[in-house]
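tmp note - DUF5714 domain-containing protein
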Amino acid sequence: MTVREKAELIVKDIKKEQETNPVNIFKNIAEKEYVSIHGPEHHILDGASLLVAYKNAGGEIDLDQALDRLMAEGLRMPGAMCGLWGICGAVTSIGAALAIIDGTGPLSTDGTWGNHMQFTSKAIGELGTINGPRCCKRDAMVAFKNGIDYVNAHYGVTLHYEQMPCGFTELNEQCIKERCPFHE
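out:
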């Protein structure tokens, strides 16, 4: 199955979610057979989970249009960018979702451009402290924690978050176990 086919399934299935906790939405979709333990489909799944939770919490957004845009942005992000480029796809996916919510672009002067950079730098800094190897599930949890804080502080909606145990350890051959803040 191609990454585009996976992305289309993610978008189709995620629209059915009713949660205001993006982590729960993420886990519901991440457990589907078409989502790999690691892979570029997370570049769509992570931001899409945030967008759906935001809409479900009362956020003003055209969800179909937002998910289409997020899928287009996520498909431009290559796999393994965490190790090859030094930036995590989970964080960039959440950053793309924030840009979609705010309508931010490269020439924005309303403060959102800088706010999004502060979000991504905080999340990337936390990932850097944990260290590798990569884990798309762990990285998503860190991105969500920071992204939910950002949404709750900036948009007048409340997304729910609770730190939950990972649940994917047995599927990840490179799991860092006790070094991971989400390890069971």
